[in-house]
Amino acid sequence: MNIVSPWTLRVKSGEQPSCSDLQEHLAAIHDNNAGFTESCAWNCRDSKGKNSYDLLADVVDPERHSRVLDLGCGSGVLLELCHKRFGSELALLGSDMSEAELRLARNRLDHTDIEFHHGMAQDLRFIADASIDVILCHWALTLMDPVAPVFANSKRVLTGNGVFAAIIDGDEKTAPGYREIHDIIYTYARHDYPQYGFIELGDQRVRTSAALMELAAQSFTGANIKITPIVLTMKAKPDVLARETAGFFYASFVLSVNDHRKMLIDLERHFATYLQDEDSCFKMPVNLLTITQN
Fold this sequence. Notes:
- The chain is α/β, with parallel strands linked by helices.
- The protein has a single domain (6-292), classed as Vaccinia Virus protein VP39 (Rossmann fold), CATH 3.40.50.150.
- It has helices at 6-12, 19-32, 38-43, 52-57, 77-86, 99-108, 148-157, 178-192, 209-219, 238-248, 257-272; strands at 67-71, 91-96, 115-118, 132-138, 158-169, 224-236, 280-292.
- Strands 3-2-1-4-5-7-6 form a 7-stranded mixed β-sheet.
- The longest helix is centred in the C-terminal third of the chain and has 16 residues, at 257-272.
- It is globular.
């Protein structure tokens, strides 16, 4: 909580932060809260019981793919899932900008031969051309800026029929109640940072399907680009939902301790108004982006 960085200082003054400001801000959050995204993401599931990690792992076909890169691998949840599913059938690699997240991933997977690399998604010089069959990216693409070099580097390292797949933010209109949760959290963030939300993390083109399609097509010429909207749901008691959802929003990490406490109370009250058999429900809109080279 209460992360102060060059990014937040620029937002407070109403200025547009730079890419380096963003990178410092994200590093500060992850260094102090490594692994914070995985609980909510793991427990939010679609109508078939699959979470966002499952949806990405489903892209991998061990009969056609042999090398998989998890771009922005975080604490290693997706890599662990792929290892459990495919075992020695695949060579797995993970890359992340946060050393704190990578430490969790290495500890989690120290019994495997998975390769880990510390670095930015815009610079994949440690990977040879046309050597990766699948690139998976779990909720990191939304935070990256600039994005064009990420796509350009991904195309370079993918094989001729390789696949890039990412889970990103979806259209909030598809998930009833999501906007209310968003607004509670962002209202508190705007106590100290009035422009928070108007100035947002990452490249804003990733947050709209049309702009994202155009951006991806610039690097992946002639590829089959598809965006699939999905709604994920988590059911739990109101106090659990309040903690889980707040911990998933980056805006919650810029709050003072006092505002964070008040926000959790407001979230719990909100969820308590929608009880069903003692549980409430949180719906999260996501998009599954898949780019298949021809």
